[in-house]
């Protein structure tokens, strides 16, 4: 068995046996054992499904009032239709992130559905 490294690299005509090295999957298993040695249930406890509710605001980001005819930009920011058009006259960029909106404001049907669900839920509580 030869030891050391060959200066020719992959173009060397001799076989350099390096069976004492670990394979990639073996290195990953060892690394996972080191990180999970304190937590056996770490995968189950740390697994969380992100919710869309966290990303949908309840008020217009421009006027800070409840939505009136809400629209959404291609960068997923929500505004009142009037506020979006008013800001678009001054700047073609999104008010929040500065990305070019290209004047494309889609009706925010998902936001309207969530707001109507919230209103229905509030009405049923009283």
Strand numbers in spatial order across the main sheet: 2-1-3
What is the CATH T-level topology of the largest domain? Herpes Virus-1
Oligomer: single chain
Secondary-structure content class: mainly alpha
Fold and architecture overview:
The chain is mainly alpha-helical. It folds into two domains: 9-46, no CATH class; 52-125, 2-Layer Sandwich (Herpes Virus-1). The protein has four helices and three strands. It has helices at 24-35, 42-46, 81-90, 109-125; strands at residues 70-72, 78-80, 106-107. It has a three-stranded antiparallel β-sheet with strand order 2-1-3. A hairpin with a 5-residue loop joins strand 1 and strand 2 (78-80). The longest helix has 17 residues, at 109-125. The termini are far apart. 10% of the residues are buried. The model has no long low-confidence stretch (mean pLDDT 77).
In short:
The chain has about 130 residues and is mostly helical. The chain is built from four helices and three strands, in the order ααββαβα.
